[in-house]
Amino acid sequence: MSLNMYLYEKEREAHSQDLRREAQKERMLSHLPRHHRNRSRYAAGKLGVLLLKLGARLKQYEQADAEMEAGSMVSIRKEPFQDFGLHLSERRS
To answer: Helix, strand or coil for residue 78?
Structure first.
């Protein structure tokens, strides 16, 4: 009978130790940040907004560049010195 009591006490002690370990693990996990997924979503959202703003800015530059090219094409079609108030027939070489 003492052998059974010894085994019973050992089993009860092991179970108690398991419960203490599990409680300690729960306490440690409770100190960690809970919303880790929200951080990555927040970062992804900020990156998306940044890329949208960058795309809009690049589109503005592209449109301005296209307008400048269109403006230079118009001035090429005009007489070269018309902007200076001179015409080819009046220009002296």
So the answer is: coil
